[in-house]
Amino acid sequence: MSKKTPTVVEALIDSSSEVTHEATLEVTEEAAPAPEPVSHNPTLIVWPTDIWGLTKDVKAAIIAATSRINGQADKKALLDATLAIALGHLASKYQSDTESRAVQIAKDARDAVVEPTQDTLF
Q1: I need a labelling partner for 121 at 20 to 30 A (CA). Which of 5, 16, 74, 106 fits?
Q2: Could you tell me the pLDDT band of residue 30, with boundaries at 50, 70 and 90?
Q3: How far is CA 111 from CA 101, 114, 117, 118, 122, in A?
């Protein structure tokens, strides 16, 4: 029994996996399981609520790109790889920003001026 080379998405989920260049170009009919069934019709897709409007352009770009795949496996593989890289960038950027934010909060707390209270004034 041979070991299956993980897809890029599987490798991102399991960080212990090794991904080769060939794995990023692998064409597969297997898709990652969706939390709920998702329609092929973009008007019927139920997206998460976005109160900040953060994902408006991303959703539009995804719908535009998926409409151009036209059942071609190489185009699907390209979009899968692109989305996997985007998810990797998201995780990396989030980690970096979280660390920077924690440092800034600690610095602000350290540099904060402590206002005297009423009992220490007299």
Answers
A1: 106
A2: low
A3: 15, 9, 18, 22, 25
The Cα–Cα gap between 110 and 102 comes to: 12
Let me know: does 26 contact 74? Beta carbons within 8 Å.
Answer: no
Give the pair of three-digit tokens for residue 18. Answer: 């090794």
Q: At 10, phi and psi to the nearest 5?
A: -65, -40
pLDDT score recorded for residue 3: 55
CA nearest to 23, candidates 41, 40, 11: 11
Higher-scoring residue by pLDDT: 20, 72? 72
The arithmetic mean of pLDDT across residues 58-78, rounded, is 96
> In sequence order, what are the residues at sequence separation of 6 or more whose Cβ sits closer than 8 angstroms to the Cβ of residue 83?
9, 62
- pTM of the complete model: 0.59
